Amino acid sequence: DTAVSQTPKYLVTQMGNDKSIKCEQNLGHDTMYWYKQDSKKFLKIMFSYNNKELIINETVPNRFSPKSPDKAHLNLHINSLELGDSAVYFCASSGEGGAGEQFFGPGTRLTVL
Amino acid sequence: DQQVKQNSPSLSVQEGRISILNCDYTNSMFDYFLWYKKYPAEGPTFLISISSIKDKNEDGRFTVFLNKSAKHLSLHIVPSQPGDSAVYFCAASGPGNTGKLIFGQGTTLQVKP
Q1: CA-to-CA distance for A108 and A102, rounded, in angstroms?
Q2: Three-state SS at A84
């Protein structure tokens, strides 16, 4: 059973489009995260939610909007996609809301043409 | 402003020998440190962690050392195995239970048979 799953694994789209990436965890964790890994391989946190409440919101353009329908899901919606949004996006979850290890999904490679 | 740095982009060692991966940080308020391992096309997986109140933590072949005065930590893998070939990320968090992990840029380890 996959602990943290993301769909789709690959996403190719045109500039200006709106797209969503879905994330689900079956670990019973309270906290979920979105990270972005850019072309230089840096992994940077974007958002975190604890029990559907936004906890961390880094300096991310407001074209990015996370949505948490329940504590097992954290989706990422991106409006008006730009070339610079091309990256690998990782979802993660943790059970301790902080110092505990975070479990990562397999990643979604987004390519904006 | 990169608060966590892994200055060696790559490391190559012979099977059976020791692998030493290094990580430096600048923020003295970090109080928890983690190492993640990442295979291509997969998400990072947790390897080992250490709290700032300790200077060593060991788990099987993996040992993490923390030198707070130098703001330096290292991961030792002994003996190294070909299956250890992956990208290793150092991460830090704190102070307290923030859930926000700051990652280094990763070191690619190649273990040669």
Answers
A1: 17
A2: helix
Higher pLDDT: A12 or B100? It is A12
Q: Supply the pLDDT for residue A1.
A: 66
Q: For residue B15, what is the DSSP state?
A: T
Strands B10-14 and B107-112: parallel
Question: What pLDDT does residue B100 have?
Answer: 87
What single-letter DSSP state applies at residue B61?
A: T
Q: Is the N-terminal amide bond of B113 cis, ω within 30° of 0?
A: no
Looking at chain B, which residue has its C-alpha nearest residue A5?
Answer: B43
Dihedral sign of CA atoms B9, B27, A101, A28 in order: negative
Distance from CA of B103 to the nearest CA of A (A): 6
Predicted local confidence at residue A42, as pLDDT: 85
- Inter-chain CB proximity A90 and B101 less than 8 Å: no
φ, ψ of residue B70 to 5 degrees: the values are: -90, -5
**Candidates B46, B97, B103; nearest CB to A99:** B97
Which residues from A are below 8 Å from B49, CB to CB? Answer: 101
Contacts A103 to B, Cβ<8 Å: 46
Tens digits of per-residue pLDDT, A20-71? 999 999 999 989 999 999 888 889 999 888 888 888 888 788 999 999 999 8
